[in-house]
Amino acid sequence: MTSSEERLSTDDVRSDEPLTHAQTVWFEEPLLLERGGELPRIRCCYETWGTLNADASNAILVCHAVSGDSHAARHDADDQPGWWDGLIGPGLPIDTNRFFVVCPNVLGGCRGTTGPGDLRGESGSEKNGALDGQSHPPASHPAPSDPAPTSGGQPYGADFPRITLGDMVEVQRRLADSLGITKWRAIVGGSLGGHQALQWVSRYPDCTHTCIAIATSPRLTSQALGFDVIARNAIQTDPHFHGGQYYDRPNRPVTGLAIARMLGHITYLSVAAMEAKFDPDRHDPRHIASDFEQRFSVGSYLAHQGQKFTTRFDANSYITLSMAMDLFDLGSNRLRLMETFDECTCDFLLISFSSDWLFPPDQSREIVNALTALDKRVTYAEITTDAGHDAFLIARDMATYGPLVQERLRPLSEKLRPPTEEPSGEDASHAAASETQAPVQLTVAEESILEIIPAGSRVLDLGCGCGELLAAIRDRHAETPMRLMGVEVAQEKILSTAMRGLDVIDYDLNNGLPAFIDNQFDVVILNATLQAVDNVVALLEEMLRVGKKGIISFPNFAYRVLRDDYVTRGRSPRAAGEFDFAWHDTPNRRFPTIADVHDLLIELGVTIDREIYWDVSQSRHIEADDDPNLNADTAVLEFHCD
């Protein structure tokens, strides 16, 4: 696969072909809009995959982005591509062998759900009554991509009322009711779809077991707002816009819409992605039939994407949806966000992308920090990629974050089942298929820590690695509910920890622990990490702020073997374990000794409750009165602040 193919967004290959698997339901009750006014009658277009089970507990709602629609995935080999084919399907992270997946076109869209292209007060003759909630054959209605008829009334056009994310969610709630779904197994979405997922749980706190929000934010940045303003201006100043009433005219505002799409497309890519995609043939553009500039390869690409977009999207819908996204605002600070999510009962998975400057990772962290302070179950990962915002639609990146989604969707019965109880039926097959973790292997220091963690404790593990210690604590006290959470910065370790079914957030300890509130945990662990952090004192103080007790383990650089290296052989100290690094290639920023750490804890007014020392190289426990500063290579200290 070429570098260009690896970066191909699934949105790039969408077409204007009819959505042959689309279904339609009409809602007769008027929709009262949040910003005033109403829509007298609503049509909702949606697609489904899989089969709803008897108690309607396996339904997953998938929400699409601005340029998406209900066609999230192929239904069969002959179907056109979907925008999340890498996530939705048999055996995939959103497994249609297990789940009933529903993806509706949003209110205000142009692919079948009521939008600006519809006739004012449209009554329509076709409607599906109450649906039975199973997988249905396609409804017999015009293809959602067809323009609204112009006979019998005038389309809304630019007079379509201002709608919000809340209005979109209300239509989706009515759809859930019509399908017999009272609680979603999960609500999943990326970009604007992530906004919808967050709006759902903030408005209906008990609506789902799991909320998965990808490449999203609590609100748009001013920069992102600015791009949307320019895009709308490009459309509205097109000479063929005609105040939004262009449906019965020979020409539509395709130039303005194409420019809006081109502008948006740039925001979806990172600098690195654009360089990789366009720099090799920068001065060798692919010439296409277009009035847009094609002097550079990036120009012909954008012209192609812009023109193609106009064949499947409506300019008024673009204005409507982008404005709804711009108005979306769950809160600008942690306190506001805590108020927003305070009553939520679901667990959360948030995923961001390192090179996404449209919805940057810091915005996802704002949500994570609020959820963490509320002690909600949350896992967060920042995926390292050069693809930019488009990463959530790129196969290579889907393969990276997909396992996180799959783990979060493990059967609820499997998550709640006591470890002594064997899975059966569907749970057994899923458990066997997802068993990817090797048996937990603990270090001597971790074994010592495990022994001193009381049952029922709330435990935070800083620098949790692959989650082995947290998993061992969970398994040791399996009969007692425990709040366990990890913090890690290495992406592969975050993935490994999450795959163990543990909550973990992607965070750099050198920035302190601002996500956590005072005394949130009973025990805070810093295992084999003290020597690697930048600000030791600040981190120890933070541990004692957020936890009632702290436990640290660290390598003792005063160990006799290391002393011999330095004094006798004139070499930088090196030995097995945490010391086994060349001087020029070591993660160790500090070289603590037991004596040094003792002195520091005393300076901080800390009481040491327990001291455990080992000479791991000799498999020997070292007593506190046997000069551990010389004879131990590993120390474990438990302490608290009076």
UniProtKB/TrEMBL annotation:
Active site per the UniProt annotation: 191, 356, 389
State the top-level EC class. transferase
| The protein's annotated pathway | Amino-acid biosynthesis; L-methionine biosynthesis via de novo pathway; O-acetyl-L-homoserine from L-homoserine: step 1/1
Q: Where in the cell is it found?
A: Cytoplasm
Renumbered to this chain, region (Disordered) spans 114-159, 410-437
Q: In terms of domain of life, where is this protein from? A: Bacteria
Where in this chain does the record put each AB hydrolase-1 domain? 59-393
The record's keywords, sorted A to Z, are:
Acyltransferase, Amino-acid biosynthesis, Cytoplasm, Methionine biosynthesis, Transferase
Annotated GO molecular function terms are:
homoserine O-acetyltransferase activity
Reactions performed catalytically = L-homoserine + acetyl-CoA = O-acetyl-L-homoserine + CoA
Keyword Endoplasmic reticulum in record: no
Q: Name the positions where substrate binds.
A: 261, 390
Task: Name where it mostly resides.
Answer: cytoplasm
Q: Record's InterPro entries?
A: AB_hydrolase_1, AB_hydrolase_fold, HAT_MetX-like, Methionine_synth_MetW, SAM-dependent_MTases_sf
Q: Which family does it belong to?
A: Belongs to the AB hydrolase superfamily. MetX family.
Protein function: Transfers an acetyl group from acetyl-CoA to L-homoserine, forming acetyl-L-homoserine.
From the Swiss-Prot or TrEMBL record, give the protein name.
Homoserine O-acetyltransferase
Please tell me the species this chain comes from: Allorhodopirellula solitaria
Gene name, Swiss-Prot/TrEMBL? metX
